[in-house]
Amino acid sequence: MVRRSAESRFREPAAGRRRRERRGRGPEPWCWLLVVLAGCSTGEPPERGRAFRIGSRVEAIGGPAAIAEVGDYVLENGVIRVAILQEGNSPGPGMFGGSLVDIDRVRRDGVHRPGAGSDAFAELMPMVNLMVPGYRDDPRRRSHFETLSVEIAADGSEPECPVEGGARGCAAIVVRGKGDRLVEALGMIEQLQVRMNLSFETTYLLDPGADYVRVRTDVFIDNRWVDSGEVFGLPSVRSFVDDQLGVLDVLVGDALRPPEEPKVWQPGFLAGDFLLMGKKVKIFAAGAGYDFPNRFQRLFDEGRDLLGSPQAVDSLVGVGRGVSYAYGSLDGPTIIPIFTGEFTGAFTHGLRCAYEDAACLAAEARPLRYERILTVGRGDVASALAPLYRLRGTPVGTLAGWVYDPRTGAPVSGAEVFVLADPWATAPDHEFPARAERLLELLEAETGGPGVVTELGSDLADDPVPDGSFAGPVPRGAYFAVVRAPGRGLSAPVRFTVNAGGTTRLSLFAGHPGRVDYEVFDETGSASPAKLTFVGPIEADAPCGPGAPIPHLTVQSSARPLPLGGGEIGNRIAALAFTADGKGSVELEPGRYDLWVSRGFEYSVHRQCLEVPPYAAARVTAALRREVDTTGWVSGDFHMHGVNSYDADTTYEQRVISAAAEHVEAIAVTDHDVITDPGPAVEALGLRHRVLAVAGEEVTPIETGHIIGFPLRYDERAPEHGAIDWTRRDACLADPAQEDCNHGGTEGYVLPLRPQEVFDRLRELGSAGPAGTLVFAPHPRDGFFGLFDQFGLNHFDLSWNSPGLIRGQHPLLRPEYFSWDFDALELFNSKRPEMIRTPTAGEISNFAHDLRELRAARAPERDVADLHRAYMTDVLTRTLAEERALRFGFAPQCLTAAQCGAGQLCDPQRQRCVPEGAACTVDTDCPLGQSCEYGVRPYRCTAECVDDADCRLDYRCDTSGERARCVRRACAVTEDPDYPCAQSGSPVRIGVIDDWFRLLNHGIVKPGLGNSDSHVLSSLETGCPRNWLRVGTDDPRAAEIGDVVAAAKAGRVIASYGPFVELFVDGRPIGETVRLEPGERRVTVEVRAQWPSWFDVDRIEVYRSGELHPETYVPSRSPATFSFEDELPLREDGTVADAWYAAVAMGVGASARSLSPVYTPNRHPYLGFSQVVAVTFASIDDPLISAVLAMPLPVPEQVEVLPYAITNPVFVDADGVEGFQGPLGPAPATWGE
């Protein structure tokens, strides 16, 4: 992985990008009405293409997603502009240079300054067999290219285009590279005999006048290449779709069949792109419409193997502000096997040969070629699809017209005209759907989908006349038109037909508009920041307002139709609004709503039934009162993202306003590998008295765990504003001879930064110096992105022996490269309840059983969600039996024989030093009472186990054989149902709180945090969860960031999804230490909990050194206080160990009110790359795959946000040694440090 040198890389300041206007410009509107498919002709020849390297920022493309900079390449032709990264690393979501990162229309509207376009595209990189062009070392020189190169192949000045298939005046850039893995985890598929020794030559070709770029890739296989060999054009994936083949069906063929079975198909090829459109666009696919991503998620929810049953689309469209894109092939469909927040794979071509097919095998010896098209539209689906229709020869006509207000006749700008299939055009007796909602129901019921074909926008951004006009190509056929416009209901369907080559003109009427004007005050009568949540529209006879039931989390508002771009939220939420000054207006479809006005966890809510009339404003006056006393504490959220992160589309003004509305008083913006300063947004909004905001960074290695630091210096002129280059490529490009640039020898690799190096560099970047910088590990158990998961930290004994997905594949993931030198640990991340506590084997096996039954019965989604809620309650609620199964009192004695005395060996199943027995090969070699221990070399006889207590925590005593022995536990019905289910290598989540308890017991004190990881405002709200930090004031004007950092480092923190809970031991608060005199063992424990009136807390737990205290408390009202006397236990030698106490407050019972609808629910189980891969690979009958990847088991996670909070510890120093000592001594993961 390479990042280009600092001398040639500069990034436009984020603040500068934010100030720029985002509107676009394109051809004049009458041109689109007359010649939609042919383009706008002025009678002059089209402008010649041009290819050049960016010499200054004004030559770049610019826009909310733009990342190309000085030294990168640009193609332009007077219609569109395309940016290709130079050699090196990608500063976007990809890995390597040479990828397509920015693409926009030419802007000549007098609004967009040079270098300040409207690019909204993230990144595209060619992919064959999951390999991409990169820097993979090739010492055998078997492949065509040895390193990555980017060159101009045509600059538009040549008399004839020097690139095959290009028009005169073309511009082209060629990228050559050795096939590399985007993620090292994919290396394990080489064990499946997947063809991965590849080289790439990709040409990005732009013809004069084209509103699309051609992406042509030649692939060279193994050592069978020739410089001038005739290429073989890969066929479309259509046959794979028709035969319902999965990804591995093609890539692996019959290679894994047993030797005695006949083999027909050899391993094949799938070719396409890693297509990362990012969050600046909405994804559309014909048929599903804007519901395509959600449908993909629902297939995963049903337990489908997505790689085994990829989804086929005609093309994939992304629609942004003033610009849109369409991706596809001219040869056939595109299959999408992976569609997640991290990775989206798109395959357009492929080949698999039978072993006996000589002609096919001969074709493989030639370079394989495939070509894709990426178009640029004006900000709607139709304009993006127009070039594909034209190039494919699709019979289309033009749909043109205007959108008007039904009462005033005024034109309506910003409306979307959706074109839906009409399968009943020739069935006059079929019901005519009078309402759009009914049309969608009928299409879904009778055709299996919503039938959305395309979408056209009225008065697109480059249209200078706001007359409500729209125009665009539509394939010939019969259709319905439905209008959706902001703040209005859906229009009634209008029937029409389109003839090839003809024009159909429609005058359409949008739904009626509505508006809500509001004012919000606090208990003093002052204007109050707030969030408004509109639930509805609600039927006239349905309960509404205070006391009415909250709609189920699975209910989608009719105001947000998913196929028409409504966006999925749940709880029937129609709209959200945020205000920092307590007043404003919201455009809203007329109807009846249940309105909730809130201000975070410390205030009451205002709830009322609201009638929003058409063509008038409903007026709301709300008063919120402070219900939770947090004197001396400030609330903070230190993990959030904005537009500088490729996977976020929230401006920093929106981010700051939402923080004020949610009553989050201190924030750190932590964009991915970019430093962003939110301070200018705070000052511009005049909100310094409400929000303390600082710059941070989430260092985002793809596979070695993320790390966050704040507050950091913001350098406006530096690459990524001074962010860390975790790849080390910058330094290695400048000085290849330095350490770690050839790790492992002269033909080695560039070693990414070790965790300790990242910690050090973040502290060096600290705006308050190293001591004033907080460095913490976010979501440590989140698969690819979690530090603990990736390095293989064993959940039970804190040793480095946990199998994982890519351990052994990645050179950095070694115990010696891990470091504990971070300051804090993120216990709560986002709305991820499955990562809070470790479930038990009984909870998971029973949940999996019940879920299978519901799926088999095709139960409604509501029943499935209710099952998730019931089992989540079980997971979060600990019992004494479960705590005993966790055995927090266990401390490993050894990991290797070197830690034992003479004549002893380390029994790995017991982690105890035992007498070294006789050598053995089988159990019968050992005397009775002993078994042959196979975990040591040479095998030795050791004593049989008697019960589970004789074994290490993640093993049990198996007495089913002739000799009893310790065996690894699994998440299975046969296990002790109270035993923790922490299945290594699968998406079954290990609870970070349980990790944290073990760390504390071993003296590794890392204060616990809770952060939102918010990327958007609607589904991942700012401050859910959040921290309260004891800094001596609750006024953000009086708080300094140094006070916040000091409080976090000292553990004066409460992490919370709602409740405010304090803990005192002998009067000492959290973060402090009680010192007992010699012989003293008794302490007084007191818990105080508060929560507002709109959700419930029904259980409070107290833990002593990780063990649940038997005295749990069931509060009846807020505030709640209870206390008890506790006696520290004696050790075997009669002494007293140090201890620590923590308290948990929760509201998880069946009747407990959750945070809904004030905080939106988890609508679906988490879908990430590791989940998709695990489902597919875990079922493969291969010993290596099985060793590192267990069959994933479902966990309950589709739930509303449940009230839950935990304190940091109060420590008790009782052993007579100064300072807190972990009661179990040093952890194995720290031995040798």
Structural class: alpha+beta
Number of domains: 5
Q: Helical amount among residues, as a percent range?
A: 10-25%
**How many DSSP-defined strands?**
59
- Compute the CA-based radius of gyration: 31 Å
Q: How many DSSP H or I helices? A: 20
pLDDT below 50 for ≥5 consecutive residues: which ranges? Answer: 1-43, 138-144
Average pLDDT, rounded to a whole number, is: 89
Give the distance, in angstroms, between the N- and C-terminal Cα atoms.
29 Å
Strand coverage percent = 25-35%
Q: Outline the biggest β-sheet.
A: 11 strands, mixed
Shape, principal axes of CA atoms: globular
How is the topology of this model organized?
Elements: H1 14-19, H2 29-34, E1 50-53, E2 73-76, E3 80-84, E4 100-105, E5 123-128, E6 131-134, E7 149-155, E8 171-181, E9 198-206, E10 212-221, E11 232-233, H3 238-242, H4 247-252, E12 269-276, E13 282-284, H5 292-301, E14 311-313, E15 316-319, E16 324-328, E17 334-339, E18 344-351, H6 358-364, E19 368-377, H7 381-392, E20 396-404, E21 416-421, H8 436-447, E22 452-457, E23 469-475, E24 477-484, E25 494-498, E26 503-509, E27 515-521, E28 530-535, E29 573-579, E30 583-587, E31 591-598, E32 606-612, E33 617-623, E34 633-637, H9 652-661, E35 666-669, H10 679-685, E36 692-695, E37 697-699, E38 707-710, H11 729-734, H12 755-765, E39 774-777, H13 787-791, E40 824-829, H14 841-856, H15 861-876, H16 880-886, E41 904-907, E42 912-915, E43 930-933, E44 940-943, E45 955-958, E46 965-968, H17 992-1001, E47 1008-1011, E48 1026-1030, H18 1041-1049, E49 1053-1056, E50 1060-1065, E51 1068-1069, E52 1073-1075, E53 1082-1090, E54 1099-1104, E55 1107-1108, E56 1120-1127, E57 1139-1146, H19 1169-1177, H20 1183-1188, E58 1204-1207, E59 1210-1213
Parallel strand pairs: 11-19, 20-26, 27-33, 34-35, 35-36, 39-40, 40-47, 52-59
Antiparallel strand pairs: 1-2, 2-3, 3-4, 5-12, 6-8, 7-8, 8-9, 9-10, 10-19, 12-18, 13-15, 14-17, 15-16, 16-19, 17-18, 20-23, 21-22, 21-24, 24-25, 27-30, 28-29, 28-31, 31-32, 34-48, 37-38, 38-39, 41-42, 43-44, 45-46, 48-49, 49-58, 50-51, 50-53, 53-56, 54-55, 54-57, 57-58, 57-59
Helix pairs in contact: 14-15
